[in-house]
Amino acid sequence: MNITDTDAGNSSDVSNTEQATNVASLLSAVKVVSFDLDDTLWPLEQVILDAEQKQYDWIKSKASNITDELDKQQLANKRSEFLKLNPQLQGDVTAMRKHSLAALFSEYGYDEEAVENMVEDVFDVFYQARSQVTLFDDALQCLQDLRKDYRLAAITNGNADLKIAGIHHLFDDIRCATLQSPPKPATHMFHACAAELDVNPIEILHVGDNIETDVGGGQAAGTLTAWYNPEGLSWPAGLTAATVQLKTLAELPQMLAALR
Q1: Residues sharing a CB contact under 8 Å with residue 71, sequence separation 6 or more, in sequence order
Q2: Domain 45-130 has CATH 1.20.210.10
Q3: Which of 1, 11, 13, 52 could be a cystine partner for 251, CB 3.0 to 4.6 Å?
Q4: Measured between alpha carbons, how far apart are the two ends of the chain, in Å?
């Protein structure tokens, strides 16, 4: 664990010791720990690859006229093209996928009722697979340890179902980006979480792997931030640093316990 300077790009007359003391004081007042999900609590890439395969297999079995013409990559390309034409859907991955599937089935001649049913059926196949995640080795213990002393929240731009993932019961608030709730780094989900749990944003420590969406979004919303950085990357010059950096999730409960 590394307690960082509040601004990695600025010199300061305040000593490192005083800075660390200030950060420790802020962390000791934390009441809620919020987490990004994808690539913070579990690795995402293989999950999506598996879910895309299951979606393709379903289409092949139920709408082979489509897969006779399009392979998986071509289907992905069509979804990308659809998104370019419908940028208003970018903030909601569920809506984006459902609408792109509806457009695909309509293009290949299925009527409105069939399209509606097919979209729901194939999305359910994709969603079940997308939510069957394998947590990082220290993630579950981290959540269980923190749960003893803090309320936990999930704030994600993704759409994984935490009930399917098996960890829904550990969270007091769950926020997923939608068309009505813009994705991070927008501040909406952070502020909604703070309001729901009746805390000030500064009493939330948000943990995530993404510098722009998690750290930048949390900072914009007024929360404390923990950059999950298992690869030991360098912080980009000129950006305001996260409150702390974490090499492992296991460090977090230990760090917070030491400050109580």
Answers
A1: none
A2: no
A3: 1
A4: 16
Whole-number Å distance between alpha carbons of 197 and 139 = 23
The helix or strand, by DSSP H or E, that contains position 129, with its residue range, turns out to be: helix 112-130
Tens-digit pLDDT profile for residues 21-40: 889 999 999 999 999 999 99
**Cis check: omega of the bond before 185, within 30 degrees of 0:** yes
pLDDT at residue 6, as a whole number: 42
Question: Full-prediction pTM beyond 0.85?
Answer: yes
**Measured distance CA(189)–CA(163) in Å, rounded:** 20
| β-pair type (2-3, 244-246) | antiparallel
Please report, for residues 15, 107, 117, 165, 249, the alpha-carbon distance to residue 59 in angstroms, rounded to integers and kept in the order given: 61, 14, 13, 25, 38
Closest CA to 97 of 214, 110, 42, 105: 105
Q: Which amino acid is at 140?
A: L
| CA quadruple 29, 242, 227, 2: dihedral sign | negative
Residue given tokens 């998104």 in the structure block = 83
Q: pLDDT tens digits for 122-145?
A: 999 999 999 999 999 999 999 999
**Contacts for 223-230 with beta carbons within 8 Å, 24 or more apart?**
223/34, 223/190, 223/194, 224/26, 224/27, 224/30, 226/252, 228/36, 228/40
* CATH number among 3.90.1150.10, 3.40.50.1000, 2.70.150.10, 2.60.40.420, domain 2-42+136-259: 3.40.50.1000
